[in-house]
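During the first year of the project, the team set up a workflow for recording each protein of interest as an amino acid sequence followed immediately by a discrete structure-token representation. This format lets reviewers and collaborators read both layers of information side by side without switching files. As required by the reporting guidelines, we include two representative entries from the current panel. The first entry is reproduced here exactly as it appears in our internal archive.
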Amino acid sequence: MTLPLFQDDNLKPVITVLTDYPRDDLASDEVRQALITACAVEKLDCFSMDVAAIPGMNTIVAGFKTAQLALNSQMGVGHVFLTNCAPRKNIISARSKGEGVWIGMLPNGVAVLTVASGYALAPFADMIQSGHIRFFESKIPDEGSQFRSRDYFPAAAAHLAAFLRDCVAEIGAEEVSQRVAKGDAASLLDGFDLLGAAVDTDAVTGLPKGTVWYIDNFGNIKLNLVHETLLSFHEVGTNMVIGVGDSVANAVIGSAGFSQGEGILALTRGSSGWTDDKGQDIRFTEIFLRGSSAAQILRDAQPGVQLFAVSKDDLTRAQQMLRDSGLQYIGAHDLYNLYMMSEARLLEMFAHYGLIKDGFDSRPLKKRLDDGSLAAYLQQQDKGRNAA
């Protein structure tokens, strides 16, 4: 493995800051100014410093952007990410105490400092739980300033970049490359004075599968569902019904990118993804409308919201089976006139009763349809919940 940031016997870091201030906001300008100051103090010769934006207080987008950029970075050791999206929703304190910052070293040698808030670490959950990635608590102050993004975090990022620069100078670029190649990149953090205790592997949980991670500028909806997993549930070309909130749409399972024609809403293999803890290159399902915006069709799709889907054929069979059963109510769901019940709400009900799993795995529903037990199963589940 080469170290592209190591040139002329010197590591020239790249520091990428992701923070929930618009680029043209005064706060962003102040963070950048503080970062430049901190790099000057550390005598860093940086290739680049960038302060990028994420939506305000949206830890789901913060986590996804961090993972997509950091896990796919080819810069390796010396590339330092700082992600700050900390709503502080549960904090009432005159000291302005906020969530702590965690420090991690990714398998590719990229270092990440991130506020451990909300779902900022959800994309890394599987890799943390498997031990593929290690995160540590930090000694970066979590109180004393309302504006930690300016007052504490830039100095910490620059300090880490300087530590890595000195580490490469001390043990040599070849040794650094060998450690990364052997999966021991985390050892490069040994001795860093801001490093705290290792984070428990079960301290981070992911989001339910089928959840929206990100909606891009073109209205493409990126899900946290590996597309090959979706294809294990439904074949390419299957006509699907997708529901979210009160929004519902017909879509077709595609293989990749532009596999469906213009004007057809497609569930396709998107451009986002990374190498997982098993060394496999994974790509996530994207809801894509060629020539238009999928988000305009599924208006209730937002980051953090789980979508549900079944094949059009199975949904039609389920509606007919429930009509024929004469059932009027399942829980709070009024089935008296299924024509009046939103398909999106019907899908939500199926998910609630375990007939759709991970948003798109409707094999439990199909089993009940095939053996004719759908109505009886729902009645049994409903009685069980009421008894509990």
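The second entry, processed by the same pipeline in the following quarter, appears below.
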Amino acid sequence: MTQLDRRHFLGSGLFAAAAATIITPERALAGASPAGWSLAVADVDADVPEETLQLVHGKVPANCDVTLYRNGPAKFRRGTGTSGHWFDGDGLVRKFRVGDGKAHLTARFVDTPKRRLETKLDAIVQPGFGSSRRDGAVVNGPDDTNAANTSVLMSGGQLLALWEGGSPAIVDPETLETRGFKTFRRDLKQMPFLAHPRVEPDGTVWNLGGNGKGTFVWKLNPDGSLGKAEMLDVGRASYFHDFTATARHLIIVLQPWVQEGFKFPLSTAMAWKPELGTRILVIDKDDLSKKRAYELPAFSFFHLADGWEESDGTIRFDGCLEENPTFGQIAASALLRGEHIKAPSPMLTQIVLHPDGKADMKTTRISAEFPATDRRRAGQARRFTTHVAGYRQTPFPHAIATWDWKTGRDDKFDFGSHQLVEEFLFVPTGSGERDGWLIGTTLNLKERKTELHLIDAGRVAEGPLASWRASLPLPLTFHGTIA
């Protein structure tokens, strides 16, 4: 890619000033003085030094030795202002270490230009997904607004804190100290790198970058070095937070939530156009010019699970699909005001792409989010999808479950209405798809503390084998990884 192409892709219009939005103290009050589920979007004012968690339930398996990294927004308010969207808070990387029968927690903010500037000004000024540009903002490129708050990736021995509109931030896996932004090649500086890369069993990483009709395709070798960097014309400027892949193909789902221009907040530059339907592109990993398209009725989504391809060419993958993008458009912004705007529930659904060009969807009728699988089987046939569930009167889930695509049953444990449940990840202990543990976190509203849980992946309904409690509550995260 030439330097000119890169500048065109980044688009100077994206970083033009947008009208400032004034957030009054009254509007920020619910989040500033959190009660009930508002703890999920409360502020953390400083890094969290290492602490030993309290074992409050069960017994730790003797062979348990795992580190869970999680990332999510944890600073939304400064001075009299607040971020305009849940997705725009400063990223706080948390490290949960389980070994020798004990669990430890430490957490550290990603040291980004955005965070440094807003700390200096004691004000929220940088624009984002749902935030306007305000007086004092400095926006010369994507990484000036990079919150590094969505996920983490271990690649080539480096821990990367991911956003979706800019570079990965390098984080020391031991100390969680920020080492700056990752530049894979000088002419690719600040190119977007999505927060949902697909990792093959050998450690090869595939990812996309940015939204619009021109999308960037990344391939990282198992050692973390750059393997491929190419532009791909997808034909529609759809918003996609995630994509999926099989062993041979990349799968890009183009929902009819379409970018119509470049302005801040970014969410206001997109329009929901259900009449366009949803288009799915299947792209050959070895030759990105080889692609075929499938058409389905309109749906919106944030998260997909890994896909696979059967011997006859049929492709299957699942995701948590919504009727429309109300949550991303307005409901996630309302959370910071202490408001719960009901949005269509995401439903766990399998999408089937047939060799004859037809496609269909098979819904489980299960309200679910954050689908996770056995990462050793990425791109291969599988039977199970782990997900959060149990939505009640709060915007957040209360249960963890594993759906069995063979039997059509959900193995579920409900933590109760006082617990807000985050994504759980699979930790293998044997060769079978359920031979292992699920490790994840919850926010205990009754105790006002964050908790860590370990569950037998084959017996989810029996609840945690062991649970630990931190000394403080941390706001909810989005995604994590294990090491």
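For the second entry, the following points were noted during internal review. Helices lie at 3-10, 25-32, 113-121, 326-334. Residues 11-35 have pLDDT under 50 and may be disordered. Both points are flagged for discussion at the upcoming steering committee meeting.
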